[in-house]
Amino acid sequence: MKTDSKCRSVMLVVLLLIVFVGSSFAAEVTVEKKTVSGVVITEDIIKTADNFIVMFDSSGSMAKPYKNTGLTTLEAAEQLLIERNEILPDLGYNAGLYLYTPFKPIYPIQPYDREKFAQAIEQLPKKASGGTLLQQGLHKLDGIMSKLSGRTVVFLFTDGSYTRMAERKPVEIAKRLANKYNVCFYLISTAKDEKQEKILKAVASINACSRVVPFDQVFAKPVYLAGALFVIEKRAVPFVSTFVRIADFKIENILFDFDKTDIRQDDYQRLNLLGTFLKNNPKTYAVLTGFTDSVGASEYNLELARRRAESVEGYLISNLGVDVGRIVTQWYGKADPIASNDSPKGRQLNRRVECMVMGMD
User: Fold this and answer.
1) Of 48, 156, 255, 263, most Cβ neighbours within 10 A?
2) Nearest-10 crossing angle of helices 73-87, 114-122
3) CB 317 within 8 A of CB 254
4) Same-domain pairing of 147 and 181
5) CA pair distance 170, 168, nearest whole angstrom
6) Same-domain check for residues 75 and 193
7) Do 330 and 227 form a contact (C-beta atoms < 8 A)?
């Protein structure tokens, strides 16, 4: 009976290889066997920001229960900060942690120290109360960032509401900061209605590197913040073994014409295979990363890379029925080229969306 079971496993993998690999090499299935103890992996951590600032919301709106976790939204947000701090590599950042409801320095901007930052998180309020003084918090950022150099990422916990004051609207203040400093806003959103979502989208629209990240997605899959402060380049060499299982699923990069976001017809087959694999393996999800060649301004290329990643995402959702919650999009413009930008062929290879399947275990 064991022999029959092993034969069936091998036949299953052979059939998968025929379906995915046999289609003009549109997709590649990596298999592993039991006699192998692991894989050899090399990792390079690449820093993508010089400073980060956490603007934390402890206003009354954060007192609501968070799903079925037994936590309030405030407690869930603090737990998220603790978990992210534990795994953040120390790459020489300057860091700050501030309340803006009302404004209060918890960890004034200084060189990042994991242990001290963890102690600062413990000092955050345990009960939510008060108004959302979003404008005041954004105004205070001006004085904080004036002492910094390089790129700054601001992680702003917010539901999009704010206390009406005589000051400018949040989007106007954020736009002024973006014009003055090299800053990206990651708006960790707990917005509950269309009006609040519209406010956050307006703030995120001030430049190509700012974005709205739903709190639910970050809490469930921390990879949604990947790339904000660092990226990891991994290279793996799989071992061959006797116990056959699918260890990895890869498709060739989706390439784009110059300054275009339209998916080319010869890429439909690859994306159809990817969508089919995701639907047949419900625990997996796709990470789509957009890039451009080096032609043009950095800000424009960052936006173009975002639209390319979202174009692939839209195809998987609309044409193949992949749930939006199983797709992570990220974009880095002309960063990390895989070929020389000195030739038309190299630039073509760099105008791409890389598709990675995760959650295989």
Assistant:
1) 156
2) 170
3) no
4) yes
5) 6
6) yes
7) yes
Task: Report if residue 334 sits inside a domain.
Answer: yes
Residue 131: the pLDDT is 79
Buried b (16+ CB within 10 A) or exposed e, 218-236: bbebeebbbbbbebeeeee
The terminus-to-terminus CA distance of the chain in angstroms comes to 26
- In this structure, the answer to whether residues 226 and 256 fall within a common structural domain is no
Whole-number Å distance between alpha carbons of 98 and 107: 7
Percentage of residues of the chain with pLDDT beyond 70: 81
* 8 Å CB contact between 282 and 334: no
The pTM score is: 0.61
> Which pLDDT tens digit goes with each residue over 101-144?
888 999 999 999 999 999 999 999 999 988 777 888 888 999 99
Q: Are residues 183 and 310 in the same domain?
A: no
Q: Which residues contact 76 (CB under 8 A, 6 or more apart)?
A: 66, 69, 215, 219
pLDDT at site 101: 84
Q: Does residue 2 carry a pLDDT above 50? A: no
Q: What is the pLDDT of residues 244-284, one digit of tens each?
A: 455 567 888 999 999 999 999 989 998 999 999 999 888 88
Q: Encoding tokens for residue 253?
A: 């990069």
Range of the domain at 321: 252-358
Residue 168 CA to its chain's centroid (Å)? 30
- Whole-number pLDDT of residue 234: 65
Q: Rg for the chain (alpha carbons), in Å?
A: 23
218 pLDDT above the threshold of 90: no
Tell me which of 90-99, 214-223, 268-277, 312-321 is least confident: 214-223
CA dist 307 and 45 (Å) reads 25
Q: How confident is the model at residue 308 (pLDDT cuts 50, 70, 90)?
A: very high
Q: How long is the chain?
A: 361
Residue 173 sits in a domain of what CATH number?
A: 3.40.50.410
The two three-digit tokens of residue 346, written as one number? 């190299």
239 in helix, strand or coil? coil
* 92 and 167 belong to one structural domain: yes
Specify whether 187 is located in the same domain as 302. Answer: no
Residue 120 lies in a domain: yes
* 123 plus 191 within the same structural domain: yes
Based on the number of CB atoms within 10 Å of its own CB, is 332 exposed (0-12), middle (13-18) or buried (19 or more)? buried
